[in-house]
Amino acid sequence: MSYEQIFLEVLKTLSPEYILLIAAGTFIGLIVGALPGLTTTMGIALLTGITFKFSGHAAIALLLGLYVGGVSGGSLSAVMIGIPGTAANAASVLDGFPLALAGQGAKAITISRSASIMGTLFGIACLALFTPILSDLALQFTSAEFFLIGVFGVMISGAMTGADLPMKGWISGFVGLAIALVGIDELTAYQRFTFDSPQLTGGLPFIPIMIGFFGIPQVVSSLSSEQEVLVAALDKSKTKLMEVLRHWKVALRSGIIGVGIGVVPGIGEDVAAWVSYGVAKKASKHPEEYGKGSIEGLVAAETADNSCIGGALIPLLSLGIPGSPPAAVLLGALLIHGVRPGPMLSFEFPAFTYQAVSWLLVATLFMRFMALGLARPMQKILTIKNAILMPIVAVLCAIGAYSLDIRFLDIVLVFFAGVLGILFNLGKYPPAPLVLGIVLGPLVDVNLRRALKASNGDISIFYTRPIALFLLTSIVLLILAQLGVFEALRSKFRKTRESTA
Amino acid sequence: MEASTRRLRTLDFFMGTASAAIGLYVAIEGYAIYVAPELATVERMTNPGVTTMFVGSALALLGFVMAIIGFIGSKTPLRNARQAIPETLRKPAFLRGVIALGCIAVYFFVLWGRIPYVAATFIFLAGTMTIFKAGAWWKIFLISGITVAVVWYVFGVLAMVPLP
C-alpha cells in the first residue's frame, strides 16, 4: 500500500464518530485512572465487553483513548490524595503529593499533565518509527524464534517484576502458560484439561480472567482497609509552559527509558516510572529535593510512564507480544475485533499502525484539555468511600465479564481468578507475568511443536539460527543473572585479586 | 530474621509446594496425552503432550525450588503457620476481607441468575454498602438504585446484553 493510500485510510478513521469515541475513551480513562481501586488494565478489560458490538476499529480507537487517559489519570489522585490511581503513577506520589500539601496542587497537576503529554508524544513517535522496522524483522522469524521470544517474554517479565524473588515471577508466568493450555489444541484438535465440559473446549477466556484477577483482589483489599483519605486543596495558580520545558533533558531521558522498558514484554508503566525516577535522582544536581516536591522527579516519573504506552504497543503491533499488562488486555480486544497483531498485520491491515498513531495523538490532545478540567470535580469524587465505590466495581466486573459471551462460566472464572489474584498478592507474586503467560501461551505452545516438526525433532533449530541463538542466550544469561551466578563469580574474582595483591 | 520475612517465607513454602503439585499434575497429564491412543497417528513432535510436559515440568521445578527457599527461610514452616493462622483470623482487616469476598460469592453464586438481574444487583449493592457502613440507609438505597439503573441502561439497553 502506498503512503497516499495509508494516509487516506487514516483520514477515514478520523471521522466525527471516531473522534467522539476517542474523546469518550480518554474521559473514561482519566476517571478510571484517577480512582484508586480501578486500573487501566481493568478499565480496558471492562470496556472490551461493552464495545463488543462496536465495529472493530471504532472499539480499538475507544480503548486506546482509555489507555492514554488511564495512564495519565492516575497522577490526579497521586497528587491530590497521595494514593496513585494506577501502579504506573506510584512514583508521582513521592513529589506530587508534597507539592499539593504545600499549596501547589494545581502546579503539580499542570506539570504532570505536561510531562504526560511530552511522554505520550515521544512514545507515539517511536511507535510510528520502529513498528514497521520490527514488523519487517519479524517476517524473518520462524517458529523457533517465536517460541523463544514467547519464553523470553515470560522470563524477563518475571525477573523484572518479581519484587521479592524472580522465581515468583517465573512461577506466575508458567501458571499463565498452564492456564493457556486449557481447551482444544490448535494443531491436533485434542482436548486438554476440559474435564469433558463443552464450555471449556474453547479454552479459558482471557478477559474474564483479567477482570477477576485484577478487579476482585482490589475490591476485597480496599473494603478490608479502613484508611481515611486526605484530599489536598487545589490552589488557583497558573504554571507557565517554560517552567516545564526547562526540564526537557529529564523529559527526553525519561521518554527513552519509558519506550525502552515498554518494548520489553510484560513489564509496563510502573517499572518505567520507577526506573526513570531513580535515574533522574542519581543524575540530578539536587537529589536531596526528591521526595519533597521536586518538579524534576515528577517530570521524570510522568514522562516515562506515558512514553511507555507507545513503547508497549511496538512489540504488540509488530510481534503480537504485549509490552505491558494493559497492552496484553488490548491484545485480547484486538483479537476479539478481528485484528491480528504481529508480522501479518502489515499485510492484513497495512494502515493499522498509522491509524493507531493518529488515534493516540487525538487522545493525547483530549487528555491535554480534559485533565485540568477534571481536577476539581475529581477532588469530590476521590472522597467517595471505598464502601460505596468498591461494590460498584464488583458489579462492573461481573457484568463486564458476562457481557462478552453471555454465560455463567465467565462469572465463575471472575470469582476464582479473583481468589488466585488475592493469593498472588498475599504471596507477593507479580501479576504481569501471569497475564503474559496466558497471552503468549498459544504462541509458545504451537511454535514449539511447529519448530520441532520443521526440524524433524532436531533441537539444534533453537541454537543454530542467529536470532534464535541470541534469544536462547538471553534466556540463559537472564536465568544465571537472577540466580546470582554472575554476582558470585564477580565476588570470587575480587577475592582472588585481593589475595594475590 | 524479621517476623514478617519469616511469615512470607512460610507462605512461600506452602505456595511453592502447591505450585510444584500443580506442575507435577500438568506434567503427568502431559505424559498421558503424549501416550494417549487417540493420538497414536499424530507425529510425536506435534503431540500436544510435548508443550504440556514442558510447562508442567518447568512449573514443578520452579515450585519445588520455591518450596525449598521457603523452607530454608522460615525454618519451621508448619509451626509458623500454626502460630500465624489464629493471629491472622483475629485481625479486623482479614475479617473484613473475608466478608467482602463472601458478599461477592453470594452475589455470584446465590443471587445471579436465580432472581432478575436488577433485583440481585440491588440487593448485593445495598447489602454490601450496609455491611461496610457506607452511610445513611437512604443514601445507600439511592446510590444502589441509581447504579443499577445506569448499569441496566448501559449494558441491557445500549449494549443489548440479555441480562439474567
Based on Cα principal axes, name the global outline of chain A. globular
**Percentage of residues in DSSP E strands of chain B:** under 5%
Give the helices and strands of chain A as they follow along the chain. Answer: HHHHHHHEEHHHHHHHHHHHHHH
Shape of chain B: flat
Total strand segments of chain B: 0
The mean pLDDT of chain A is 86
Strand percentage of chain A lies at under 5%
Walk me through the structure.
The complex is a heterodimer of chains A (501) and B (164). Chain A is mainly alpha-helical and 501 residues long. Chain A folds into two domains: 14-464, no CATH class; 465-501. Chain A is built from 21 helices and two strands. In chain A, strands 1-2 form a two-stranded antiparallel ribbon. The termini of chain A are far apart. Chain B has 164 residues and is mainly alpha-helical. Chain B starts with a helix and ends in a 6-residue tail after the last helix. Classes of the chains: A mainly alpha (501), B mainly alpha (164). At the A-B interface, helix 7, helix 8, helix 16, helix 17 and helix 18 of A face helix 1, helix 2, helix 4, helix 5 and helix 6 of B.
Keywords:
heterodimer; A: 501 residues; mainly alpha; 2 domains; B: 164 residues; 6 helices; flat
How is this structure best summarized?
The complex is a heterodimer of chains A (501) and B (164). With 501 residues, chain A is an all-alpha fold. Chain A has helices spanning 3-12, 16-34, 40-50, 56-80, 90-138, 143-161, 166-180, 206-224, 241-245, 248-263, 269-283, 295-319, 325-336, 345-348, 352-381, 386-405, 408-426, 432-454, 461-464, 466-482, 485-500, and strands at 183-184, 191-192.
